[in-house]
Specification:
heterotrimer, A: two-stranded antiparallel ribbon, 77% helix, B: alpha+beta, 29% helix, globular
């Protein structure tokens, strides 16, 4: 019963969240001064006479007060109709549908690889704390983490695409559609750059956290008990560092999603990132709303998951009342 | 221990993908350039040309003004030859009846669209009526304002009745013709046609991979000649620097690059560099609707002496351009015996002082307590214009005018003081002249008004004989120089780089705005 | 890594750069974007120490003038983000569940809206992007992750005994924050804060690259990076390498110093 209640409460929060998000985006997008007709009509807008403009605004339903526009949009959205993208002049979801897999591949793989490698690297450095490898990796890592990703991308293109000519430098796949291997080839450079830009940030955090753990008293105890270093490291220290790690991973999802657009732009990789950027810039309201809701869902889910997981793993994270309930029975 | 194993397992998957990708990348990259077999592995050796293009959100020549791809997919009643003269396109001939004030065009026999449907006069009528329908918001509407009615007495004849004689109309009729039966009754702006265009041009649409590429195949029944290159692919590469990189890496066969990147290809053996002349010019447009110029007439002429055009061509264009003094410098109607406002800061100062301005203590001119200051607006997206604006501002600042650059995404046509304008046409001298410099005409964003100029331009467009038009246009340029609407800065060359072996590009053709027009004879190209 | 080793080299280099930037008007007076048409793309020489770019602008001048703007934006943005994050995170960490949930959901709300929209909107409202508006934008869009960590750390510490005893003794929120919580979560977020400064400077560079930064014509390290990008294929190495080198060195020094501070403060932890 309690579980159902909790679930129901979570779903309610979910819905309220999305509603609030849609209101914010709707309002924010229209707040900025600028011509809302450009997304649809392009350069022709400048030549429009007053009557033409009025007609165009009415056609696109942009002349009604914001509240009315919002309610109309909401009504349509609840039936699944998120409207036409003013820029592409197609249904919003048909545009998104063509591109979201690209970003999913890029973002998803980058995410997994970043964390996988950063855990390895972080633990390795923690184990070798103070040693030559640790110091060297620190120097290299710091340098790579501060270089803006677009610059790294350009260098990568220069080296791999132009000079060595072994990897494609733009697009998600070769012309005419490619197979698995082709897609993968187009992903190598973008993922490489994404992972490189974020790797050290997380690796270092993990390294420090693990080192902190290593300094704890229980480690000494375990060492006295003749437990192997590796075991201590992984079974105990890493495990204790997990709550922080999980929180970070959950927090990073939106960060990595947002970070794809720079990479997508430089590599000409068509995806949701560039779509979001364009729709914000050129006031493609419907597209923006749809994309933001999508992002919102992902952010909310990942954060909720992160929070739940970390509370599960470290009882100290829970709220006192839950603890009291549990012990009270 | 468990965690360790899990971590390893987790790593396996992406690592596998990674290695596969790296290996595959090697073979794949080599295959993705020209001459490759089609994806389904057909053994036929298809010649393919990959062109680095900007992105499109919709393809429709009737609605949108800019679009290199239109010259491949569509054909109009008329076309241009390599010297930009008007020649027959879909129409084999046309006549002008000055009494009826009408053009009569006769279509060729056996014309079809890419899908096999016959192309008739009904399609022509449909196309232009769609453009002239204000509800469609076509960017081209201003060229056809003179058309009063379009009649189709039979399937091969189209009659355009005009409100006034217009010698330039055949030039404007290079507009691609749309198929009526695919678009009639539909919303022309939103219809799916714009993503699956069907025309009568030398290449027909095959596939559009959004954001990535648009693939086209040759149309054997093209009425002006059978194309030689089998496939042309417009690969979407928005960034100019990326285009240069991809030309080098072999991912592109042809692209327009910046003058800076063009330097790279000058000495390379595998590439051909074309520095194409264009009719595309840049200048400072003064908004005479703004109170500042109304209260202080005569300043544009003075400012024109202050701009160091030669330095601009040298630095911004790396020498790939020419200093400008007239809007039709590249045409046969050019008049070089006019005031060119050659760079002379001293003259500029004298002129300014002659208008009543005196040097103030702050180093700027002032009159009646007001400082001589104005702002040139420019869009941030075009770095060349921004750089030019900055140099003009520096030139003006040096002589005591407090000029500044204002960067705006959206141009405030009515409110701004000046704008870094750019356009030009290699075609009929009326094109981008009458509608730009004529009082209250549709492309006259500067509110420039000169009665003599109006007279000359109107007369010139109603004459059909070059001998009659030439003196009129020459006088027009002289008038314009006396009462400047713009401070002309420079014409910009278009730098095209192609892989060696591609023939057919006419190096002497004067291109249009943004270097558009290189594909004018694409069916004659070979690889 | 030797935790007692002072980052003297980093401090010296960073100090030098900051000093040069602060004294920009004295070291290289005049308009930073001044073009010299007789010295287009000139390699480094006695007159132009770092050479000039394609439009004849003095690279050295641009770097130190640009540095002023970029470092200013970086510091201000980071400060704004840090302040918001600390207050917000602590409040959430100490608050009862309902409010905590609300606060967290709110951050997620803000995080879900693409930051581009904020940038575009704020800039459109303000008309022209300025150093101040950019700092606000960058700061206001980067505090969320720090706040979450603060909250997490506060939660973990919150149930520690000495906090409980402090509260039992009647300590108020501000006191607890200042005296107990701050010193404890400071080390954990110190790295994030310093990193945030470098992120803010990099953000300014990225925004310039995307065309959303300072107006074209103003000189910042971001605009210099764009210049480097344009020159990638040319042989003018001084345009490609020198600006990026400065950016990287500055950021690396900042990180080193931040690291040192973190270790220093961690000494008195728990």
């Amino acid at each position: 019963m309690r579980l159902v209640q909790m679930l129901a409460k979570k779903i309610l929060i979910f819905i309220i969240f999305l509603l609030a998000l849609s209101v914010i985006v709707f309002w924010l997008a229209r707040l900025a001064p600028g011509d809302p007709l450009t997304a649809y009509y392009g350069n022709a807008v400048e030549r429009m006479s007053e009557s033409q403009r009025a007609a165009a605004m009415a056609r696109l339903s942009l002349d009604k007060p914001i509240a009315v526009q919002y309610l109309t949009w909401l009504r349509n959205a609840l039936t699944g109709d998120f409207g036409i993208s003013h820029q592409y002049k197609q249904n919003v979801f048909s545009v998104i549908g063509k591109l979201w897999t690209n970003t999913l591949l890029l973002g998803g793989l980058s995410y997994m690889l970043t964390f996988a490698f950063s855990i390895l690297l972080g633990v390795f450095c923690a184990a070798k704390e103070g040693g030559i490898m640790d110091r060297l990796i620190y120097r290299v890592g710091t340098a790579t983490s501060v270089i803006p990703s677009f610059f790294t991308a350009l260098i990568a293109i220069l080296i791999f695409g132009v000079n060595l000519k072994i990897l494609p430098t733009s697009g998600a796949y070769s012309i005419g559609g490619g197979g698995f291997a082709d897609r993968a080839a187009h992903l190598v450079l973008p993922i490489l750059v994404m992972v490189l830009s974020h790797l050290w940030y997380y690796a270092y955090m993990i390294r420090n956290r693990v080192i902190e753990e290593l300094r704890q008293d229980y480690v000494l105890l375990l060492q006295v008990k003749r437990i192997s270093g590796v075991r201590i490291l992984l079974r105990h220290c890493l495990r204790n560092a997990l709550p922080m790690l999980i929180t970070i991973m959950a927090v990073s999802v939106p960060h990595i999603i947002a970070g794809t657009y720079v990479i997508e732009t430089v590599f000409g990789y068509p995806g949701i990132g560039t779509l979001t950027f364009e729709s914000a810039r050129y006031r493609d309201y419907n597209m923006l709303s749809a994309l933001t809701l999508l992002t919102g869902i992902i952010v909310l889910l990942s954060n909720m998951t992160g929070q739940a997981l970390s509370e599960l793993l470290d009882p100290r994270m829970r709220h006192e009342d839950v603890v009291k309930e549990g012990s009270g029975g | 221990m468990k965690i360790f194993k899990q971590a390893l397992r987790l790593l396996m998957v992406p690592a596998l993908i990674f290695t596969l990708a790296a290996c595959a990348g090697n073979t794949q990259a080599q295959q993705s350039t020209g001459g490759s077999p089609t994806p389904d592995g057909a053994p036929a050796e298809l010649t393919t040309l990959i062109y680095g293009s900007g992105d499109y959100s919709a393809i429709n020549p009737a609605l949108y003004e800019h679009g290199e791809i239109n010259s491949l997919l569509f054909l109009g009643l008329t076309a241009h030859d390599k010297d930009n003269n008007v020649v027959p396109g879909l129409a084999s001939e046309w006549t002008w009846d000055s009494e009826a004030m009408a053009y009569t065009f006769t279509l060729r026999d056996g014309l079809t669209f890419h899908d096999g449907a016959p192309l008739t006069s009904a399609d022509v009528k449909f196309t232009f009526e769609a453009i002239m329908d204000e509800a469609n918001g076509s960017e081209n509407i201003s060229n056809y304002e003179d058309i009063v009615s379009i009649d189709t007495p039979d399937g091969k004849t189209v009659v355009f009745t005009l409100s006034a004689p217009n010698a330039a109309m055949p030039d404007y009729l290079t507009m691609g013709i749309l198929p009526k039966n695919l678009l009639e009754g539909k919303d022309i702006v939103e219809d799916d046609f714009n993503r699956n265009p069907v025309g009568a041009g030398p290449y027909k649409f095959v596939a559009w991979d959004m954001g990535q590429s648009i693939t086209m195949e040759k149309f054997d029944e093209f009425c002006l000649g059978k194309p030689k290159i089998d496939r042309i692919i417009f690969k979407i590469v928005e960034d100019y620097n990326a285009r240069a990189l991809q030309l080098k890496s072999g991912e592109l066969d042809l692209a327009q690059v910046t003058p800076k990147d063009a330097e790279e290809f000058k000495s390379k053996e595998d590439f051909d560099l074309y520095a194409m002349d264009t009719a595309d010019y840049r200048g400072i447009m003064y908004n005479f609707g703004n109170a500042f110029w109304q209260e202080n007439p005569g300043l544009p002429a003075a400012f024109s002496y202050a701009v160091d055009r030669e330095a601009i061509v040298r630095s911004v264009l790396l020498g790939q351009g020419q200093t400008a003094y007239s809007p039709m410098q590249k045409s046969e109607y050019s008049n070089s015996n006019i005031e060119k406002y050659d760079y002379s800061p001293e003259t500029a100062k004298i002129e300014i002082e002659a208008l009543g301005w005196t040097m103030g203590a702050d180093g700027y001119y002032q009159k009646d307590g007001k400082q001589l200051a104005f702002a040139i607006s420019a869009r941030p997206s075009d770095q060349v214009r921004v750089d030019m604006a900055n140099i003009c501002v520096q030139n003006l600042q040096d002589i005591g005018v407090n000029a500044s650059v204002e960067i705006n995404e959206r141009t405030d046509w009515s409110g701004q003081q000046a704008f870094l304008v750019g356009w030009g046409s290699p075609f009929d001298p009326d094109d981008h002249t009458f509608k730009v410099f004529g009082t209250d005409k549709s492309a006259n964003y500067s509110s420039y008004s000169n009665a003599r100029v109006d007279e000359l331009l109107t007369q010139a467009r109603s004459r059909f004989d070059k001998a009659e038009r030439l003196p009129l246009y020459e006088e027009f340029q002289a008038e314009l120089a006396k009462d400047p609407a713009y401070t002309f800065i420079a014409y910009i060359d278009a730098m095209y780089v192609t892989r060696k072996g591609i023939t057919g590009i006419t190096a002497d053709t004067v291109l249009g705005h943004h270097g558009v027009g290189i594909f004018w004879n694409v069916w004659e190209w070979s690889k | 890594m030797d935790s007692t080793k002072k980052p003297l080299l980093s401090a010296a280099v960073l100090g030098g750069i900051i000093l040069a930037c602060a004294l920009a008007n004295i070291l290289a007076p005049g308009n930073a974007a001044r073009m010299d048409f007789d010295a287009l793309l000139a390699p480094p020489s006695a007159v132009y120490i770092f050479g000039t770019d394609q439009l004849g602008r003095d690279l050295f001048k641009m770097i130190i003038h640009g540095g002023r703007v970029s470092i200013f934006i970086g510091l201000l943005a980071s400060l704004i983000a840090a302040l918001i994050a600390m207050v917000y995170g602590t409040a959430a960490g100490l608050a009862p569940k309902f409010i905590d949930d609300l606060l967290m959901r709110f951050t997620e709300l803000i995080m879900s809206v693409p930051s581009i929209l904020y940038v575009v909107t704020i800039q459109a409202v303000l008309g022209k992007p300025t150093a101040l508006s950019l700092s606000v934008v960058i700061g206001a869009t980067s505090w969320m992750s720090i706040a979450k960590i603060v909250r997490a750390e506060v939660r973990q510490i919150h149930s520690s005994e000495y906090i409980l005893s402090a509260r039992l003794m009647g300590a108020k929120f501000r006191y607890t924050l200042w005296r107990h919580l701050l010193p404890n979560f400071m080390p954990s977020i110190m790295f994030m804060l310093i990193y945030n400064v470098s992120q803010a400077i990099a953000a300014e560079a990225t925004l310039s690259f995307l065309g959303l930064g300072m107006p074209p014509g103003s000189v910042t390290w971001g605009s210099l990076m764009s210049l480097s990008q344009d020159a990638l294929l040319t042989n003018s190495w001084w345009v490609i390498i020198i600006p990026s080198l400065f950016l990287i060195i500055t950021l690396v020094c900042m990180t080193n110093i931040g690291e040192y501070l973190r270790k220093l403060l961690a000494g008195g932890k728990r």
